[in-house]
Each structure stands twice: as C-alpha cells, then as structure tokens.
Amino acid sequence: MDHRTAADVLSRLAFATEVLEGSTHESKAWANAARVIRQLPGDLRAMMESGQLAEVRGIGSSSLRVIREVLEGREPDELRALEARVPDGLFAIHRIKGLGPAKIRKLWQGLGVTTIGELEHACRENRLVLLDGFGKKTQANVLEQIEQMHRADRVLLRSRASALVLPLLASLRMRGVRAEALGDFRRGMELVDGIAIVVSGDDAVIDETLGAQGVEGGHIDGTTIEVRRTDAARFGVIAVLGTASPEHVELLRARAGERGLELRDDGLYAKGELVACEDEDALYRALELVTTDPERRDPGVPLVGIGKARPRLVELRDLRGALHNHTTESDGAGTLEEMRAAATSMGLEYLGISDHSQSADYARGLTPDRLRAQIATIERARREPGCALLSGVESDILADGKLDYEDAILASIDVVIASVHRRFGLDRDATTQRMVAAAKNVFTDVIGHPTGRLLLGRPANDLDMGAMLDAAAESGCAVELNASPHRLDLHDRHCAMAKERGVPVSIAADAHAPGELLQLEHGIAIARRGGLTPDDVLNCRPLDALREWLHARRQRAGLSS
Fold first, then answer.
1. CA–CA separation, 318 and 54 (whole Å)
2. What's the pTM?
3. Closest by alpha carbon to 559, among 408, 432, 429?
4. How does pLDDT run across 490-541, given as a tens digit for each residue?
5. Helix, strand, coil shares of the chain as percentages rounded to 5?
6. Host H or E run for residue 152
C-alpha cells in the first residue's frame, strides 16, 4: 500500500506539472520517480529509514522529500499548491485511455474543458478534431469510454435511458405484453435515477423477451432495472403510482377516500372489492378526474375534475421546424444539404442554420466574410427542393452582454440566437446583467441555452432568471429550451416562468449532425413538464406565422418597414 500511495502522489505531481507548464524536466522527474516506486521491491518504509531509498536511481531529493511526507501521513506541500491551480475534473479526465497530460492541457487551454461532462459535450459537437493531435478516431474512442463510465453509474442522461427503455418496451408490446415505463423517465425528467417498467401478460413470454433484450439479474447493459409484474385489472394503478410524485399520489388517495374508495399500492378498492383499472385513464375516470399527464404528476399541479378543461400539452407532432442547428461550416458533422435532407425526411416545414460566431474560435466560428458567404449559399439553396431554410447564427454573448457582430451583419440574418459559451465564472449580478442586456438587444431573436448547464458536467450559471425573462418579455424575444440531452436547458420551472410572462419558447435540437434533429423529443418532455402548450412554443408556428413574428420584431425595433 505504501508503494501505491507514494506512486499515486508522484503521478499526480507529474500530471499537474505537465498540465500547467507543459512537458518539463520537473514533470518528467516526477513521472519517472512514480514508475520507479511502482516497480521497486522491498519495504518502502525500511528503505527510507535505512537511507537505501536515497541511493535508488531516479529518486531525487524532491521525490524523496515527497515520499517521506506520504509515509508520515502528510499531504505534500508541492501537491497541494499544484492541485489548487488545476481543475479537479482534469484528474478525472486523466482516467480516459489515450488522454495524457499533453492532450488534456490542449483540451483545457483550447476548448476550456474541465470536466468529463464538458469533454463529452465537446466530442458530440465535433470539437476535438479541431485541435492539433486529435482526430476522429481519438474523438470516437474518448466518447466510447465516457459512455462506458456512464453505464457504470446509476443516474442516466435522458438519452441513455431512452436508448434502453424504448426498445425494451417495443419488444414486449410486439409479443402481446402490456408494458409501460415508470419513474423519472416516464415523468420526463432530464436525469433518470434507475429504470423501472410495469408489465402484464404471460410470464413465460415476459421472461423470454426480457432475456432476449439483455435483462439479467436486475440489470440491462450495466444499468439497474426494476420490472414490476401485475395483472390487467391493476395495471393502470401501478402505472400511475409508479410514475407520480408522492404529493400527487396523496391527492389521488384523498380523492378516492372522498368517494368511498381506497387507493392502495396494489389497486383501487370499493368496500374491499377490486375496481378494475386496466389503464391509467380508467383510474382517473373512477375518481371522476381528467387524466393528469405523466409529466405533470408533480407537486403543485392540481387535479382537474371531469367536465373541466385541461390544456393539451405540446407534442412532437406539433413542431413545425427547428431553428438552432449547426453544419460543417463550424463544428457540425453534417453539411447544409445533409441537415436539410434530414429535416425534410422528418416532415419539418423549416430549418434554421445557426453556426457559431466569430468569437467561438474553438468551434471554427464564422468570420463576417464566411457568414456572408453562408447566407448567400442558403439563399441559393432555397431554390432547390426541400424544407424551407432560414439563415441564422448562434452569436456568442460577450462578457458585457453585447453580441458578436456589427449591427449591419446581424440585421441581414433571419434568426439570431444569442448564447453564452465562455466566461461562465461571473457572479450572479454580472451574469444577470449580461443576460438581460442580450435579451434587450434588438437583434436577439432567441436566447440560447440560457443557464449554460451541462448535465452531469457543468452546473447552471447563477442568474436571476425572472429578471432575464422580464427583459425578454419587454423586448419581445424568445428563450430556448435546448433539447440536447446534455443540456435540456431551460429547466421545466423556467419554462413555466416564461409561459407566465408570455415569452415564447423555442424547442431547439441544437443538432450538430443530421440524426441529432431527433433530440427534439427530449425537449418536448421538458416542455410538457413545464406545462407548455403548442401556443407557447415558437417553432410550433407555421413558417408564415414565424416570419410574421420575426418581421414584427424588426418593425418594433425600427429595423424594417
């Protein structure tokens, strides 16, 4: 244990030194000492006390001092000082094979990557290939290792849970089994803490199907899964109780009691007799209620009695287009033509192209000349078959809240999305001022991923969301619900705040490849949790209505007649 502990400390010193200063004599000396200690036979303490360790080749005076402090149970001063200057997340990134200190230094300095979550996001946005010494193979290998790490964790991104749950449910249903998801996934949560499903049908068929889909020993592909079995008469109750928050369940139990019924964990009863509830609607009908959508079975959402209206929540089929998407002109992996073909095949009426702006050098952001050239390309492409194309840009919001181009350039673009990509460390007041200024900018059409969070990777920026949304309501701009499963930003409560103020919400794929347009479905889940209807969502508007909205904004700002 002494050998391992000492070698680990020396390795951390070598890593921190090289990340901060590059490959130096000092970093090489620490790394060499770590290798020597790992391979050194004998009792390390005895060798230290006898002076024998000082004679070992590769163990200099600095290494000897550090080893002595480790053996005495003290944290070396050198390590404490260096680690204070290196983000903790870089040490975690060092666990990924193929990423040595030199490459991690490039990731940190070139892309601002400090956590595994930020590294995963950079991979998915095709940014590693922009750095010297990185290629597509390295990027794919890094991403595969990160996904393996996620598989070992219980908490899953929604996209990961979806990839496990939906094929399993489809296979069960194809075999005649009633099956439904439960828990966080069914409620539309952005992070899923364990997978659970309810099934009803022939046990032999269920067992065979589960086995064929890789469910074994309570796990699927390394992730815990709970399979609840029930009969047809109880299925609806189990599905509701397994999805709803405790507060919603208590409301249902009280409602049942008021009507002489008893809602137990295993079913609905009237005077001790089971009341059949073969689906969720049947339970709500028995309680004389309109069904509460799974995403809304949360605290603070009231029950609605039969005969009263509950607004229809937005669905994927309501979306008419997507405004925030990238191409190979910046950090996307799909060409303009490929992105348009994917959008057309999905039945979208329009597609916005919003590559990164000039300050985003890490993502090959567009200079003014390149942006003008892209606008001209889009104009020519509009003559070809396919969904309508809207020119756009994802303009960085600079530290002072200004956008990244001169006004004349911004005025020539159909849709301007304003987003923060750098300087995340501002305090609450400065961050709020920055976002309010961007929301008030007459050229800002949509505030992109407003909190800047990366799920499992970077916390949300600390800002007064109410103040930013008030500014958006005053200026008439929209806010984005970024549907990338690594962001899902806005939070559902912020969606509700936008709705209260009449601020339109744009559900954005933030697609960096053709297939990522499918990410819109994750955004729909969060929008439904926030209580959004089609009327609340900007890109539920048909193209003509969207153009009218954009034109009205420009008229209001005095930018068009």
1. 73
2. 0.82
3. 408
4. 999 999 999 999 999 999 999 999 999 999 999 999 999 999 999 999 999 9
5. 50, 15, 35
6. helix 136-152
